[in-house]
Write a structure and sequence with these properties.
The protein is α/β, with parallel strands linked by helices. Helices cover 51% and strands 17% of the residues. α4 crosses α5. β5, α6 and β6 form a beta-alpha-beta unit. The chain has an eight-stranded parallel beta barrel with strand order 1-2-3-4-5-6-7-8, surrounded by six helices. The chain binds erythose-4-phosphate. The site of erythose-4-phosphate has 11 residues, from α7. Erythose-4-phosphate binds next to α7.
Length: 217
């Protein structure tokens, strides 16, 4: 499973990139607004840190303006994935861009029917929002299961990018289903390292080694 981080915080991105476990970055207009930084230079800086796909979302909702925005965004770097909403115009943009070899991440997916359309439009990534479905008492992970099954049935190349991730459980369950990618806030990625038995076991090893009076170096 590839790990993308869902943030525009450069310090967090640098820290995670240094682990060697980070495969890409996703952003959206809310994340950019929260950063308080200018969109295009910020995406450029992220692209300089991470080699994998960096999602940058169009702001318009009509076909012509989205195409113009995408034209600017894709010039930032070859590994920018243009993020478009799952609407008829968004999928038209998706088809036009992927036909030209540009990566596209189709966002705001909440149903298997939408995911099927995105794959037919040639999306590089489909982003089903697991947490937001759970928030309305729907089953976000069940949607991941359905999309993985449908994509497998037809050998679609579109990668399932599990988005709106709220906990390690979302990641592990989606990994068991074979989802290709997940994107989560940095805090959730950091939680993956954690286990109380690791902490207590390490504390005991450190203490016992100290008491042995030995040194490796
Ligand atoms: C990623 O592409 C999405 O924009 C993001 O995961 C949404 O997460 P949220 O539901 O926590 O805002």
């Amino acid at each position: 499973m590839k790990f993308f981080v869902d943030t525009a915080d450069l310090k967090e991105i640098e820290e995670l990139a240094a682990t060697g476990l980070l495969d890409g970055v996703t952003t959206n207009p809310s994340i950019i607004a929260k950063s308080g930084q200018e969109f295009i230079p910020l995406i450029k800086e992220i692209c300089d840190i991470v080699d994998g796909p960096v999602s940058a979302e169009v702001a318009a909702t009509d076909f012509d303006t989205m195409m113009k925005e995408a034209e600017i965004l894709r010039k930032i770097a070859d590994h920018v994935a243009i993020k478009v909403p799952l609407t008829p115009d968004g999928l038209r943009v998706c088809k036009a861009l992927t036909d030209e070899g540009t990566m596209v991440n189709v966002t705001l997916c909440f149903s298997a029917a939408q995911a099927l359309l995105a794959a037919k439009a040639g999306a590089s990534f489909i982003s089903p929002f697991v947490g937001r479905l759970d928030d309305i008492s729907s089953d976000g992970l069940a949607l991941i299961q359905d999309i993985c099954l449908i994509y497998e049935n037809y050998n679609f190349d579109t990668e399932v990018l599990v988005a709106s991730v709220r906990s390690p459980m979302h990641i592990i369950e989606a990994a068991k289903m074979g989802a290709h990618v997940m994107t989560s806030p940095p805090s959730v990625i950091k939680q993956l390292y954690k286990h109380p038995l690791t902490d207590s076991g390490l504390a005991a090893f450190v203490e016992d080694w100290k008491n042995s009076g030995q040194s490796i170096l």
